[in-house]
């Protein structure tokens, strides 16, 4: 595994530019750290302006500032990564780079083909880099190199006043051996060389804050709205956990209006509840953009979600019960208890790799009935149609049957594991 990275920062303007809540340079190092890098050797123009950025509890990696030459420790690994400090990329890119085999090549250069934005052009002959720079080329550099550390020996780094540039490193490596170009056009990794590429990279970050588990409602509607909220909140000195608490408070206000009963109270309550959903999505987006994910945040989010879900179900059932509908309170309680168990037990089991292969939101019609998107859509349909009694009974059946199926699958997985281990 590649654990070392040589980071080059030559354009201080872009390195210090705020990109979705973090300076570009800081974002690059946090992304690389999340991708598996444990040691950074940083060469930067006017490094004194950048050093305070790394005095942050989020950094667990070792940071070494270099000037005239790389320390001997750097050359003890079989391969290392060279990263341009003024770029934006997904941590998954670093994970992919770690799987490259250098073989006889001095380096492998990540490139993007068919791109129209500005950047550093490279000329290719097949898979090999034949030249760099100029007005014509076959691809753009993606700002990442995988190198054999010994190929960087003897290189003149230039110091922090006039540090070597990324293209100059490529030219140096081409004298040490061949450089293979690896196309990463499908991955998110882009150099920032102008105001246009900076804005494009920042917008691309906001578009990628969703989750693979998002349903259609979340993907095409909720995330569009939460993205607007995230762009506002990410500029404020507020943590994701504080945003989660705000979402909970908004949700509790919605529960109070549901408890009041009556058509217009419930319509207003549904709109307030939807606002809490949007803010709830935003807390995760801010956490991912600022690399502030934590087990505490995931737990708090799960607890608050279950409180709001249960609150909506119970307060609505209470209002219907006061209106004279028999047994509806028991249906609301059954739905609320099932929702609390599922929303808190499943994330824990998943984090412990216990529920692998057991829980899949899209596995069956019953599970679709109980997921987040369906809850929102059903709530709006039945609120605006004035059929909240149907909503409570539908949720009671959906969540309860879902809970039974979940435990049924979990029990048989436990039996299979026990049988497999003798």
Structural class: alpha/beta
The number of helical segments is: 13
Rg, rounded, reads 26 Å
CATH topology of the largest domain: Four Helix Bundle (Hemerythrin (Met), subunit A)
Q: At CATH's second level, what is the architecture of the largest domain?
A: Up-down Bundle
Helix content percent band: 40-55%
Any idea of the CATH class of the largest domain? Mainly Alpha
What does it look like?
This protein is an alpha/beta fold and 422 residues long. The protein has 2 domains: 4-205, Spore Coat Polysaccharide Biosynthesis Protein SpsA, Chain A; 211-420, CDP-alcohol phosphotransferase transmembrane (TM) domain (Four Helix Bundle (Hemerythrin (Met), subunit A), Up-down Bundle). The chain has 13 helices and 13 strands. Strands 1, 4, 5, 6, 8, 9, 10, 11 and 12 form a 9-stranded mixed sheet that branches. A two-stranded antiparallel ribbon has the order 2-3. The longest helix is centred in the C-terminal third of the chain and has 33 residues, at 388-420. The chain starts with a strand and ends with a helix. Residues 354-367 have low confidence and may be disordered.
């Amino acid at each position: 595994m590649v654990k070392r990275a040589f980071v080059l920062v030559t354009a201080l303007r872009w390195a210090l530019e705020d990109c979705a809540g973090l300076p570009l340079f800081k974002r690059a190092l946090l992304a690389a750290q999340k991708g598996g890098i444990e040691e950074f050797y940083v060469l930067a123009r006017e490094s004194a302006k950048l050093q305070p950025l790394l005095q942050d509890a989020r950094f667990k990696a070792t940071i070494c500032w270099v000037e005239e030459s790389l320390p001997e420790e750097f050359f003890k690994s079989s391969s290392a990564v060279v990263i341009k400090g003024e770029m934006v990329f997904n941590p998954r890119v670093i994970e992919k780079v770690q799987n490259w085999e250098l073989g006889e090549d001095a380096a492998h250069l990540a490139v993007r083909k068919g791109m129209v934005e500005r950047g550093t052009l490279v000329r290719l002959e097949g898979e090999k880099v034949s030249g760099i720079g100029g007005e014509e080329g076959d691809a753009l550099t993606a700002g990442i190199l995988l190198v054999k550390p010994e190929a960087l020996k003897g290189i003149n780094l230039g110091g922090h006043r006039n540090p070597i540039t990324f293209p100059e490193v490529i030219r140096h490596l081409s004298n040490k051996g061949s450089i293979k170009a690896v196309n990463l056009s499908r991955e998110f990794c882009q150099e920032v060389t102008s105001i246009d590429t900076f804005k494009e990279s920042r917008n691309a970050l906001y578009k990628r804050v969703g989750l693979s588990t998002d349903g259609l409602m979340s993907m095409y509607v909720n995330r569009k709205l939460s993205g607007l909220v995230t762009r506002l909140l990410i500029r404020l000195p507020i943590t994701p956990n504080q945003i989660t608490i705000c979402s909970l408070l908004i949700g509790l206000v919605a529960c109070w209006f549901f408890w009041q009963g009556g058509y217009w109270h419930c319509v207003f309550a549904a709109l307030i509840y939807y606002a809490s959903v949007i803010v709830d999505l935003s807390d995760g987006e801010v956490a991912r953009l600022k690399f502030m994910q934590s087990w505490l945040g995931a737990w708090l989010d799960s607890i608050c979600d279950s409180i709001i879900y249960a609150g909506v179900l119970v307060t609505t059932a209470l209002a219907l019960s006061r209106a004279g509908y028999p047994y509806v309170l028991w249906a609301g309680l059954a739905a609320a208890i099932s929702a609390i168990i599922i929303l808190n037990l499943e994330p824990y089991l998943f984090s412990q790799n216990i529920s692998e292969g057991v829980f899949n939101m899209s596995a069956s019609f019953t599970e679709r009935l109980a997921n987040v998107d369906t809850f929102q859509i059903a709530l709006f349909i039945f609120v605006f149609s004035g059929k909240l009694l149907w909503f409570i009974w539908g949720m009671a059946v959906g969540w309860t049957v879902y809970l039974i199926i979940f435990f049924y699958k979990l029990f048989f997985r436990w039996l299979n594991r026990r049988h497999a281990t003798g």
